[in-house]
Design a protein that fits this description.
This protein has 247 residues and is of the alpha/beta class. The protein has nine helices and six strands, in the order αβαβαβαβαβααβαα. The chain is globular and about 50 Å long. It starts with a helix and ends in a 7-residue tail after the last helix.
Length: 247
Amino acid sequence: MEKAAKKKIRPLQQQNRPGSETNMNPVPETAPLKYPKEGKLKNKIALITGGDSGIGKAVALLFAKEGADIIIAYLSETKDAKQTQKEVEAFSRTCTLIKGDLGKENHCKKVIQNSIKIHKKIDIIVNNAGLHWEAESIEKITTEQLLTTFQNNFFSYFWITKYAMPYLKKGASIINTSSVTAYRGSPKLIDYSATKGAIISFTRSLSANLIEKGIRVNAVAPGPVWTPLITSSFKPKKILSSEVTHL
């Protein structure tokens, strides 16, 4: 978000959910930093939810550069997913695309089953998919919205991890994407912030639970990032304002 904010021109823009990275102006910068690749993830298999664009795409490209084969689970943004697949393959790594709603338990189970069927193993899980809606007050948040937000932002992390557990070996890694809103809150993203707080507690508890198995569990808590989530969630004038930097 910060890099995009420095651009002199950023036209008013808004997209329908879930948004498309290729239609954003400016297009987000997701290419790995220029440095000699070290092969840190050589022959590892990394599953990344929401890996078609934004943070997930950046992670996919960086992991591919370091030698990992990539599995991307995404909702419906096939154009973005195929572009990411093309960029991953430019690093001479494979990229498997699995389309579907991660807010549904059965689909999460199928993501793991298909991943194992194709790759025989999973070494890294990056739980990253997420969504949010603005609401002026808690009274404006419907039960349907609350459940949808938790199903996508938190339950999917739980389900993906649960069904992957039989296949994770010692040395495997689970990385969960939380948010700064888990710590400082957000007045207009109450339900979203709650899911991100749940992810922090989930990460800490799961880490303690899996320590004896030698499986690492960590979380990251990014601030605002220029991704399709921004252009498909906020009104155009807010995107141009400093308000969006205080999610």
